[in-house]
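[SOLVED] Need 3D model of a four-part complex

Original post:
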Amino acid sequence: MTTSAPGASPSVRFTQIVEQARLLYEEQGPEGLTMRSLAARLGIRAPSLYNHVRGKDELEVLLIVEALRGMGESLHAALTSVPARSPRRTALTALAAAYRSWALAHPHLYRLATGGELAREQLPEGLEAWTAAPLVGVAGGEHRARAAWAFAHGMTILELDGRFPPSADLDAAWAEGVAALT
Amino acid sequence: MTTSAPGASPSVRFTQIVEQARLLYEEQGPEGLTMRSLAARLGIRAPSLYNHVRGKDELEVLLIVEALRGMGESLHAALTSVPARSPRRTALTALAAAYRSWALAHPHLYRLATGGELAREQLPEGLEAWTAAPLVGVAGGEHRARAAWAFAHGMTILELDGRFPPSADLDAAWAEGVAALT
DNA sequence: GTCTATAGTGGGATAGAC
DNA sequence: GTCTATCCCACTATAGAC
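Solution:
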């Protein structure tokens, strides 16, 4: 997190670092992201990364931020695509589909952002709430919202971890849960 | 996994190793269990462990087995405690309470047994199904059972990870989900 | 800003003597 | 079976020259 002198042209930019870190993480998961591997991908040496980033911890927080933004955009878009005054079930179904498909498209980032403890104090103010807003707005009460979130997260993480039998009809299980929680 | 010669008296026994590994893991989590730390706890040196266990991987599988057994016992007991022919909701409520409290009592083992991919081929035949049996029997159909499992796992893991606000009334969220999924 | 060189840490696992 | 002595690996991070 160093600022460059005016006119300087660093061989790598901060945004490039975050971008490549995200790609590396999406492709290979937590094991795949090391200071060495990231540097190699950027065409520099590992120690040079420390001129731009405080350390690996900062990098991980940045990735969580990216993930929450991505998920949030997907959920907000899903809600927008539903006609106003649609029945609650319509909105919930759309949110569930968006939630699941974002996670399946970015499994490692999904795990990073939703598993383990969250370093809330290092996140941009309001980001977490903004990501959750679509579901909270639709679910019908805070208890219902938490139950629905738990259901969605449970379905998602169990699917990502290969916990359901290959033969399981997960569309049906999702539909069942959404219907019950409507 | 070596067999002792008749009459031999090893200074540590296989069951002791698993027992201490479990305690270490329960107390300190994944980071806390190393071949060195486990050996130290048993009063031997790390290399000696390899006379009893193939390696750390085998140890982890053994811990997963312990965890599935423990969870299963808790769930089967909860179901037994419910009077026969009780309404479905009574049984589901009892199962949910047992599920949650086992997990809260053994957070690290719960994570180990329910997170990440499961090395099914290394587990005792039928163990996984036996652990799941109480819920599967009560839920009312396979899709409903999967939805209920996802809900319970989601609630549990989000609580363990501190994802709910401290002010959240989780009993209410559990009750809401159980009611919806009944 | 980037480099080379290196410190420091921690881990799993093996060889061979007793 | 247990020990000591090592090897090997991988990683984060820093120091100092260019």
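Edit: Chain A has one domain: 12-181.
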